[in-house]
Amino acid sequence: MQFDRSELNDDVNKLLSSTANEICVGQNWDLEESVGEQRRKQFESCALRATQLSEVAAAHFDQYVQGARRGHLSTTFDKVLNANALMSATLEDNQKIIRLERIDQLLENDGGLTFERLLAALSPRDNDALAALTDEFQQFAGERPAFAAFKAEVDDVLKQPDWLQQVVCRLGLLHLMPQTPGEVFHFALMEYTVGDVRQQAQIQNVTSPFALATVVESRCSPAFFPAPKGAVFGFTVDLGAAGGGAQEFLHARFDYSPKHVLKLAKWQGPTDVPDVVQCRQRHVNALRLRSGRANYGEKHWPMSAK
Questions:
Q1: Where on the phi/psi map is residue 238: left (φ > 0), alpha (ψ -120 to 50), or beta?
Q2: Which phi and psi (to 5°) does residue 41 adopt?
């Protein structure tokens, strides 16, 4: 993606010659093909005094993607501004979706809600306790687009004792890995359907509630990887040994109810952080096969890359 603002192009070049994680972020900005001209111009209108992409991206995300209040139309689902990335309306309503939520902040917000109480409530489906959690999600301001995947993409590992770690790796959720010794993260795995999302989106007058994730929504994560233009789905960078990844997409904000809480788990650090650079090189080779774009990313990964 090329910018009109020369300082942003300069920052991409700086990222590409910096640390490993910053190189990954720079590659993402350079590779992005699905952000159209109108959306790019809107992006560049933010933080005009900033010279770093991270500052412009944060300002744009806060103002246009997430927004400060409920009810605004996130540009992620705007038919004009993000036409290149909007997904087909042919998704079947009964397809099951999963999203992994870190819930530590929500537990802190409600002093009477503990992880142990939630675990005890899950099997008998104590809706009062589970509602105490899902109600906290509804207090979040703005219309955040949610990174999600189809349940079928991780169904094979959900019965495993280490399902949480495997889901985090397969979905490329690097930011959800506790790295500090003794640090504990708590999670809820949510399950709902395409039809559930559509039903709520209609109430909010969002007519196209599913989209490919672009670098604009990536929050400058080195574990994100943009899909080639015209792709049906994006694919996660698998951080595990298998390297298969999963189809991923964004959907409009969805308010949970107790029935959507599928699983709960916690993860204590430290975690051995995977080599994201190697994972990405493996990912681009798989993406070339999936997309039929044999030369995709060749600027950064020559065709001889294995």
A1: beta
A2: -65, -40
- What are the tens digits of pLDDT across the range 260-279? 999 999 999 999 999 999 99
**Contact present, 297 and 282 (Cβ < 8 Å):** no
Tell me the residue type at 231: A
N-term to C-term CA, the chain: 25
Residues 5-57 have pLDDT tens digits of 999 999 999 999 999 999 999 999 999 999 999 999 999 999 999 999 999 99
Altogether, the residues listed in the chain come to a count of 306
Backbone φ, ψ for residue 176 (5° rounding): -100, 15
Q: What CA–CA distance (Å, rounded) separates 277 from 254?
A: 33
Mean local confidence (pLDDT), 184-188: 98
Distance CA 136, CA 61 (A): 22
Largest CA distance in the chain: 58
Q: CB 12: neighbour CB atoms within 10 A?
A: 18
Q: Which residue has the tokens 């501004």?
A: 81
